Automatic annotation (TrEMBL):
This is DNA-directed DNA polymerase. Residues 132-198 form the PAS domain. DNA polymerase III contains a core (composed of alpha, epsilon and theta chains) that associates with a tau subunit. This core dimerizes to form the POLIII' complex. PolIII' associates with the gamma complex (composed of gamma, delta, delta', psi and chi chains) and with the beta chain to form the complete DNA polymerase III complex. GO terms for molecular function: 3'-5' exonuclease activity; DNA binding; DNA-directed DNA polymerase activity. Keywords: Exonuclease, Hydrolase, Membrane, Nuclease, Transmembrane, Transmembrane helix. The chain crosses the membrane at residues 7-29, 41-61.
Length: 679
């Protein structure tokens, strides 16, 4: 059906021509015939009748036929693109008689879909229960793990892995593991994994961390590999520190032992030279003293190394207080917890022994029957205070206590070793003017949990997707890949204005991912950008962002490489992509921020599918296909990107019905529409 603009133009043209023809004929008859006053009104009626008839017929056709036909076309498009959409308006005009048949077809289709969905839900109930149990297990598992298929595409990752790579845009379902962990040794390990499930371990260097990686073949149909990770940076640093000190200490020990042995042998051979004998005895004494000092250092090193192997763990301060209270009850000392309990990262047994020893020594110094234990949450530290009614401890006394061993055993770690393990110190605070008693304070590492336990994470839609393994192998030639099998990154930008070539810049960049014909709800990129120029007030009126909102954000030179890493091997999708693509191109600064992949434009695809319909803006299409913007998300980069992704998913079935099934087909269709679109 021709577009409404063409029909309207044709109608106005015919009406205008009819009117002009009638007026010309009337003027000619007036000049030639000079009719009487009785006949002149009849002639004018006859002369203007064609124009009135044309106008009336056009108006009637628009109301009774053309508008109902456009409604019918929208209803069919919505039925194909979104069969479960509600709120359909009824047909009117001359198509009103088709309403019962259309309702019958639509209701029958929806009823069939409901029956199929019910059958699928019933058949998948057992699998869903297994999935929920798996997700519940992985939610609480602290070990970061990934499952990949034979092509190294990520099929599953747990919250611990998401937390480990929270600063990495390359983590996501279907993403290549090589983008997340770009190590050549990892690819070689994948290729040489044992099929019997024997694990293979690797130590992978990172920018700031060392990861111990274990790979194990799962033997599944998709050739899956289980990858478990452990951050060993702290353990390696402790081990290297210990080995470095030991490497410096051992040669000195060998030197002193060699010198002592030589001096002793020479001393045994000297019998008639008292002066030489005295010098040798002095040398033996010096080497013995030096050897004793080195042995003491070796002993201290071994004592400290025992604690360096202990891992700091998440500990609830109330649990530590309860354990300490039970120990102090045996000494008839009452412990009272004060303040709000918090989480902290400590070596619980060592810290418990340290506190018990400090209170014991304090009780020996001045009789104490009651102790208050208060935990204060600082910025990055937790301050543990022991308070009592009495005199503060002097710094000289604290220095003596730091050297005390924790246990009456050989090679027992000392108080200063526990403090060093926690990166802490021991302070003495006098009574304050506000009424606080004398205190001993230990600043300890804080936990990211803060003052409350971490909330249980709800299972996420993109928690895992093993159907990704059924997709064809990744290929650089994407032209013939079906659209439903493409990895697509739908993005949107907000800018300081619309004139990008005259200096307007990106202030917000966001994207979401479509993988295996499914929108991954939480796989998003959302970053505000400092444009390093003022944001005009008329732009703020649209997207709501002000200079203050982006003042602390990174510049585009920092954001764009991270976004390029997030895109990975996917293709880009946008609505009115020419604008957003130009915004990216003008901001590109190097190879790490270049976007050479194909770009799909939902605006052009919609125009290709419905060229005769008006309104292909995002708002109009969202209303047409009943796509909802959550409150406050319109004209935000992420909100617009999500709705654009949903729009693309409803357009894909209609494209397939018209033979547009591959990326090459879609790009060719876009090119045709671009040629027809006036610049």
């Amino acid at each position: 059906m021709p577009s409404r603009q063409n029909l309207l133009g044709l109608w106005l043209l015919l009406t205008g021509l009819s009117l002009m023809f009638g007026l010309v004929m009337l003027l000619w008859l007036e000049s030639q015939w000079q009719p009487s006053a009785d006949i002149r009104p009849l002639l004018w009626v006859l002369g203007l009748a064609p124009a009135l008839l044309c106008a009336s017929v056009g108006w009637m056709l628009e109301r009774r036929l053309f508008r109902p036909l456009r409604q019918f076309q929208v209803l069919l498009a919505r039925l194909v693109a979104s069969p479960d959409a509600q709120g359909d308006y009824p047909l009117d005009g001359w198509l009103h008689a088709l309403q019962p048949d259309l309702d019958h077809i639509r209701d029958g289709w929806r009823q069939d879909r409901m029956q199929i969905s019910a059958a699928q839900a019933q058949g998948a109930r057992k699998a869903d229960r297994i999935r929920q149990e798996l997700e519940a297990l992985l939610q609480v598992l602290d070990v970061p793990l990934l499952i990949c298929d034979r092509h190294q595409r990520i099929l599953l990752f747990n919250p611990a892995a998401a937390n480990m790579f929270r600063e990495q845009p390359a983590l996501g379902l279907g993403r290549p593991l090589s983008q997340l962990l770009p190590h050549p040794g990892l690819l070689d390990a994948f290729q040489h994994l044992s099929a019997n499930g024997a694990p293979q371990q690797l130590l992978l260097p990172g920018k700031q961390h060392w990861l111990r990686c274990q790979l194990r073949h799962l033997g599944a149909a998709h050739g899956g590999v289980l990858v478990t990770l452990q951050d060993t940076t702290a353990a390696l640093e402790h081990d290297q520190r210990w080995r470095r000190t030991l490497a410096q200490l051992l040669p000195r020990l060998r030197g002193h032992c060699g010198s002592l042995n030589s001096a002793t042998e020479a001393l045994l051979q000297v019998t008639d030279n008292p002066d030489l004998k005295q010098r040798l005895e002095h040398a033996v004494e010096q080497e013995s003293q030096a050897l004793a000092v080195e042995v003491e250092q070796l002993t201290r090193l071994v004592e400290a190394h025992q604690l360096s192997q202990s891992l700091l763990e998440e500990t609830w301060s109330n649990d530590l207080c309860s354990a300490l209270k039970a120990q102090l009850n045996l000494q008839h000392i009452r412990l009272t917890p004060v303040g709000i309990p918090v989480w902290m990262r400590v070596d619980g047994p060592a810290l418990l022994a340290l506190l018990q020893l400090l209170i014991q020594r304090l009780n020996e110094l001045q009789p104490v029957s009651e102790i208050e234990l208060e935990v204060l949450l600082g910025n990055r530290r937790v301050y543990l205070d022991l308070g009592w009614s009495g005199d503060p401890v002097s710094e000289q006394q604290l220095q003596q206590w730091r050297a005390l061993p924790l246990f009456d055993e050989p090679l027992s770690p000392r108080i200063e070793d526990v403090l060093e393990q926690h990166g802490a110190d021991l302070w003495s605070l006098p009574p304050s003017a506000s009424g606080q008693p004398a205190r001993l304070r230990l600043p300890l590492p804080a936990s990211q949990r803060g003052v409350q336990p971490l909330p249980r994470l709800e299972p996420r839609p993109e928690f895992h997707d093993f159907s990704i393994a059924d997709l064809p192998a990744p290929s650089r030639n994407l032209a013939n890949v079906p659209l439903q099998q493409l990895e697509m990154v739908v993005f949107d930008t907000e800018t300081t204005g619309l004139d990008l070539r005259r200096g307007d810049r990106i202030i917000s960049l966001a994207a979401c991912r479509i993988m295996n014909d499914r929108l991954l709800a939480d796989d998003t990129f959302d970053q505000r950008v400092n444009p390093q120029r003022p944001i005009p007030s008329d732009s703020t009126a649209i997207h709501g962002l002000t200079d203050a909102d982006v003042a602390q954000s990174p510049p585009i030179e920092v954001v764009l490489p991270r976004f390029r890493q997030y895109v990975g091997n996917g293709i880009l999708v946008a609505h009115n992509a020419a604008f957003d693509r130009l915004a990216l191109q003008l901001a590109e600064t190097g190879e790490q921020s270049q976007f050479t992949m194909p770009v799909l434009d939902t605006l052009l695809l919609s125009r290709a599918l419905d060229p005769e319909l008006e309104g292909h803006g995002l708002d109009a299409l969202a209303e047409r296909f009943e796509l909802r913007f959550p409150p406050g998300t319109r004209h935000t980069a992420l909100g617009d990107a999500r709705v654009t992704a949903e729009l693309l998913l409803v357009l894909l079935p209609r494209l397939a019905n018209r033979g547009v099934r591959t990326l090459q087909d879609a790009l060719a269709l876009q090119a045709q529409i671009e040629k027809r679109t006036p610049q």
